[in-house]
Design goal:
Elements lengths: L2 E2 L23 E2 L2 H8 L9 E5 L7 H5 L4 E6 L2 H9 L1 H5 L8 E5 L8 H4 L5 E5 L5 H10 L6 E7 H8 L9 H9 E9 L4 E2 L6 E8 L10 H13 L5 H4 L7 H4 L13 H13 L1
Parallel strand pairs: 1-8, 3-4, 3-6, 4-5, 6-7
Antiparallel strand pairs: 2-9, 7-10, 8-10
Length: 280
């Protein structure tokens, strides 16, 4: 996997009149090459609009727009919103057309996405604030019927956890719930020097492609989430102990699967188990 150690065409966020805010977890991307590579993670096939979360000063945004697709930039920081609305369209949006870009001032975690997109499909992309990145993934899963693709930047360890196969130490709740509905691929690693201000950790870019059978799982998302969370809350224990509070029948708890620890259990096996529990 490639790792970027040098940056090109750098700028400071202050040059744009926008300062990174620690309480929002902002680290503005300043490397055009990395921005292009993140934009290229999506296939742009099967949908005609993209939601970018936390665009900051639009370094990634302009490269998405150049794909000839409508971009909705959702930003909570009013300073970034003002910059994007006043300056960004004049510089970049006319590459395609005046209707290809809009800024929505909102908190992604609180916003009803149907208010923005209705029932239309859209992809998600972004250099995500690390303090809410896992919550972004969970909300994506909850809205999976409208989101066929997802790509973006996370703290490296979080990106690896999402993509981890069973049998590894990093395999956990995020891995199972994401991979039940999406195929997850780790794309590349990025060093801290491509950001302003630089974070103290490496970052990782991943790509999620929704599975063809995402809406045909034999169990509901709610029961799968309940089973997986209970299992991994005590990840060193076997399922027999970690799922004790569910008061499952003895004949089920005596099955060989219940002698395993959660990281030893595949996504398909978790789905099968949740299905059996939901039928009880």
């Amino acid at each position: 996997m490639a790792k970027y150690n040098k940056h090109k065409t750098p700028y400071k966020s202050s040059d744009k009149g926008v300062t990174a805010k620690k309480h929002l977890g902002q680290h503005f991307l300043k490397d055009e090459t990395v921005a292009i590579d993140i934009a290229n993670v999506l296939s742009y096939d099967g949908y005609d609009q993209v939601l970018e979360i936390g665009p900051g000063t639009g370094v990634l945004t302009k490269h998405i727009i150049r794909k000839g697709i409508k971009v909705t930039a959702m930003e909570l920081d009013r300073e970034s919103v003002a910059y994007l609305r006043q300056s960004f369209p004049l510089e970049h949006v006319k590459i395609v057309n005046d209707k290809s870009f809009q800024v929505v001032e909102a908190d992604f975690l609180k916003k009803d996405l149907k208010d923005v997109f209705g029932d239309q499909s859209f992809a998600i992309i972004g250099n995500f604030p690390y303090n809410i990145s896992t919550q972004i993934v969970f909300k994506t899963i909850e809205n999976r019927e409208c989101i066929p693709e997802f790509g973006g930047m996370f703290q490296k360890e979080v990106a690896q956890r999402i993509c981890a196969p069973h049998g590894t130490k990093t395999y956990g709740i995020l891995s199972v719930l994401t991979q039940a509905y999406y195929t997850a691929n780790y794309s590349f690693t990025v060093g801290p020097e491509v950001f302003d201000p630089p974070p103290r950790v490496d970052s990782g870019v991943l790509f999620l492609k929704r599975k063809d059978n995402f809406d045909n799982l034999s169990c509901s998302y709610s029961i799968l989430r309940q089973v997986v969370k209970l299992a991994f809350q005590q990840r060193r224990k076997t399922l027999r102990n970690s799922l004790k509070t569910m008061n499952l029948p003895d004949e089920m708890r005596e099955r060989e699967l219940f002698n395993l620890r959660p990281e030893q259990i595949s996504v398909d096996a978790f789905v099968s188990l949740a299905t059996k529990i939901e039928k009880l």
